């Protein structure tokens, strides 16, 4: 219980620090969202329109910095993030929650798939080290992970979309179709997600394979593994229950961080495939100087990473009894 309370305290303090930094960074940059919107209209706006935009974007020059800070904390806790400059007059909350399911479905699923496949391949490669499996698959995926995301994506588009015509070149679904939960629409979404998902898996699986293989080789030299072999236990039980369970523990922290960064999306992949996710939206926000949207996205990323770390800490406590003992 004391361990959980310590982690919760760390979570609260870190979240407060991140929100504080997130508040001051946009205010250290020149200009503000209202002025950026005026630049779009080449200054053809009245003073009343300027004040209306400042109120809409949450920029109140009559308040002190401290008052703005506490107003920002209150608005963040209640989900009031202002209006987006890029998608004006939509609110930032509406814009983010429209793109979030696409990123969670694409990057979240592919991150889990890459972790599971990489862990299994690394585990089997360490168990059969020196054999054909260990000599072919791990080096192949590690080499592929060295290629940039966007390069693999462009090659995939060239081969499977342009040359063979099997899959769409980009976007989340066919333009002009209504978003429904029918089987034809779901299949259309899956077809559009196949290439970006394959790109993410290919370029991220190598790291999981390498770390799991190294951890597994170290664990296989431990005394309790030798004892399990001496007792005549089956190879599958030794590999999964004795060696694999302990070798995977260092990888859980990295997996938790990866799950947290799912919210940020794979920016280059979503940009190459014009996928309507958070990563593509973040790039648009930066290019359009959309400070409210950038601020909200950074806050969501921080919150997701902290929650993922907190969950992974809980899973580690369940898997490793040593973490439950007091020093």
UniProtKB/TrEMBL annotation:
Subcellular location: Cell membrane
CDD domains named in the record: TM_PBP2
The keyword Transmembrane helix is assigned to this record: yes
Coiled-coil intervals, chain numbering: none
Membrane topology of the entry: Multi-pass membrane protein
Keywords (A to Z) from UniProt: Cell membrane, Membrane, Transmembrane, Transmembrane helix, Transport
Gene3D superfamilies xref list: MetI-like
TM stretches of this protein: 7-25, 102-128, 140-167, 193-211, 247-273, 293-319
A cellular component term, taken from the record's GO annotations: plasma membrane
Domain of life the protein comes from: Bacteria
Domain ABC transmembrane type-1, first and last residues per copy: 100-312
Entry's Gene Ontology BP terms: transmembrane transport
Family as reported in the entry's similarity comment: Belongs to the binding-protein-dependent transport system permease family.
Protein name per Swiss-Prot or TrEMBL: ABC transporter permease
Organism whose genome encodes this protein: Acidisoma silvae
